[in-house]
Design a protein that fits this description.
It comes from Prosthecochloris vibrioformis (Chlorobium vibrioforme). This protein is of the alpha/beta class. It contains 17 helices and 14 strands. Strand 11, helix 14 and strand 12 form a beta-alpha-beta unit.
C-alpha cells in the first residue's frame, strides 16, 4: 500500500502521543476542511438528533424533502408511549416555493398536522434553503402557537451555519423555551433531570431505574422517551445530570443561570464511570446518607454479577487493539476504560466535536503511540487502522464500511444501535459485541490489513 498523507491544512488536527510530549496543541472546534469528506453531520442533523426523541411533539422539517429523508428515524430512541417522533414530516419545498417563499406552505402544513395529531408541541427545523430565501419561521411559529395554544418552536438549524455542535446549541435554545412553563408542584428535594440521554435501545429506562432504586426522583429525561409536559416542569428538579456533554451542557448552564440548578457531567458507559455517576449524585444529596448506602448496594450487586462474565471474554480479547472514532470525545474516555477492563489497548482515539480539554484528557489516558484525531475522514481513518494494526473499529454507521472493507471487527456505538450499551447490563452487551466481532471466524476469509482498493 502506498503511504497515505494527511491533507494539507489538517496536520494540526492529528497527533501521535510520544514520550516527553507536552500539552496537546491540537486544532479543533473549527469548520471542516473543504474536500476532506468529513464524517461530521450538518447543523440541521445535530439539532434533529437531540430533539427527535421527544415522543409527543410534532417534528416538521421546513425545506426540501431530502433533508427529512436523510434524518428519518435515525436514532434508536424508543418510547414507552406515543411515537409521533418517528413520523418524518416535511414542507417539501419545490422550485416555485424557493422563488416565492415557503411561509404560507409552512403555516398550512402546521395547521393541518396539529389538527390531525394533536401534539403537545411542535418543533420546526430550518434547513439550508430557508437560510437562503429568508422565510420568517419565527413569525409563522408565533402565529400558529397563538391560534392552537401549544408551543410551536423554531429551530434555527440551517446546515451551512457551522458544525454539528451548532445544531446542538439550536436544539438547546428550543428546549429552553419550553423549560419553566409548567408547574413544579409535587417535585421533591431529591430530584434530578437526566440530560443528554436519548434512550437508545431503552438505555434511559436502565439509568432511570438505577436512580429510582437509590431513592432519587427523575423529573425529566432530555430527550430520551421525552414528554413535553415533563420538560415544562424540569426547572423544579434539584440537580441536572449531563451524559452527552457536547449536546446538553449549554442547556444545563442556562438552567443553572436562570433557575439555580447545578449540574454534574457523567458517563453511563463502563463499570467505573457508571458507578461514579451513581456515587456523584449520592454525594450531592449528602444530607440523606441512605441514598449513598443504596448506591453502594446497587453497585456491589451489579459488579459482583458482571465481573466474572467479563473475565471470560478477557481470556480471548487481552492484547487486541481498538480504534475509536465517535461523535463526542467524552464518550471516548469511557470506551478506553471499558476496553482496558478486558485487556484491550486503544491505538486511535478521535471525535467529531471534541475540544482542547477533551483531547488533552485523551492524551493523558492513552498509551504512547496512540493517534489522537479531530474531525477525521474515511481515508485518514483507514490509514491509522492499517498502520496501527487495529483489530476493531468502534464508531457509527458511517465508519462501519471502513472496518469491513479493511477486514476488521466493528462495534456500533452511535445512535442507530438496537442493543443497550449503557449501565452495568450495557457493559456486558458491549464487551460481548466486541468479542463476537473481533473473534468472528469470518476474518480468516477477509483481506486482513490488505490495504485500500
Amino acid at each position: 500500500m502506498e503511504k497515505i498523507e494527511i491533507l494539507e491544512g489538517r496536520q494540526r488536527q492529528v497527533f501521535e502521543k510520544q514520550e516527553g510530549q507536552g500539552a496537546l496543541d491540537i486544532a479543533c472546534e473549527t469548520t471542516s476542511l473543504s474536500g476532506s469528506v468529513s464524517q461530521r453531520a450538518c447543523v440541521f442533523c445535530g439539532s434533529r438528533v437531540v430533539l427527535y426523541p421527544v415522543a409527543d411533539a410534532l417534528h416538521i422539517v421546513h425545506g426540501p424533502i431530502g433533508c427529512a429523508a436523510y434524518t428519518w428515524d435515525i436514532r434508536g430512541a424508543v418510547s414507552s408511549g406515543p411515537e409521533l417522533h418517528r413520523m418524518s414530516f416535511s414542507t417539501d419545498l419545490k422550485e416555485m416555493d424557493v422563488i416565492y417563499g415557503g411561509e404560507k406552505k409552512l403555516y398550512k402544513s402546521l395547521i393541518e398536522l396539529i389538527d390531525q395529531y394533536q401534539p403537545k408541541a411542535a418543533f420546526i427545523y430550518s434547513t439550508c434553503i430557508i437560510g437562503l430565501i429568508g422565510d420568517d419561521i419565527d413569525a409563522v411559529c408565533k402565529k400558529v402557537a397563538q391560534e392552537k395554544g401549544i408551543p410551536v418552536l423554531p429551530v434555527h438549524s440551517e446546515g451551512f451555519k457551522g458544525t454539528k455542535k451548532d445544531g446542538y446549541k439550536a436544539a438547546c435554545d428550543a428546549l429552553m423555551k419550553v423549560v419553566g412553563t409548567g408547574s413544579t408542584e409535587g417535585i421533591g428535594k431529591y430530584s434530578i433531570n437526566i440530560l443528554g440521554e436519548f434512550n437508545l435501545a431503552g438505555e434511559a429506562w436502565i439509568i432511570k431505574r438505577y436512580y429510582e432504586e437509590m431513592g432519587i426522583e427523575v423529573v425529566a429525561t432530555m430527550t430520551g422517551d421525552g414528554r413535553v409536559d415533563d420538560i415544562r416542569r424540569s426547572h423544579g428538579a434539584s440537580l441536572n445530570i449531563v451524559q452527552c456533554s457536547g449536546s446538553m451542557v449549554k442547556l444545563a448552564k442556562e438552567m443553572e443561570s436562570k433557575y439555580g440548578i447545578p449540574y454534574l457531567r457523567v458517563s453511563y458507559f463502563g463499570i467505573e464511570d457508571m458507578s461514579k455517576a451513581l456515587y456523584d449524585v449520592a454525594k450531592h444529596f449528602s444530607d440523606r446518607p441512605e441514598i449513598m448506602d443504596a448506591a453502594k448496594a446497587l453497585v456491589k450487586r451489579e459488579v459482583s454479577s458482571l465481573y466474572p462474565e467479563l473475565q471470560k471474554f478477557r481470556k480471548e480479547l487481552e492484547g487486541k487493539k481498538a480504534a475509536i472514532y465517535v461523535g463526542g470525545a467524552f464518550k471516548a474516555f469511557s470506551l478506553i476504560k471499558a476496553l482496558g477492563s478486558v485487556g484491550m489497548s486503544v491505538v486511535l482515539a478521535g471525535s467529531q466535536t471534541g475540544n482542547k480539554d477533551d483531547y488533552e484528557g485523551l492524551r493523558e489516558m492513552c498509551d504512547e503511540g496512540t493517534v489522537i484525531v479531530d474531525d477525521s475522514n474515511p481515508v485518514e481513518l483507514s490509514k491509522f487502522v492499517l498502520e496501527k494494526e487495529a483489530d476493531l473499529l468502534i464508531g457509527g454507521v458511517k465508519e462501519r464500511p471502513i472496518a469491513y472493507k479493511l477486514g476488521i471487527g466493528f462495534c456500533d456505538h452511535n445512535h442507530e444501535r438496537k442493543i443497550p450499551l449503557a449501565g452495568f447490563e450495557g457493559m456486558y452487551n458491549f464487551i460481548k459485541e466486541v468479542y463476537n466481532s473481533v473473534m468472528s471466524p469470518v476474518w480468516q476469509f477477509a483481506p486482513r490489513k490488505g490495504g485500500l482498493s
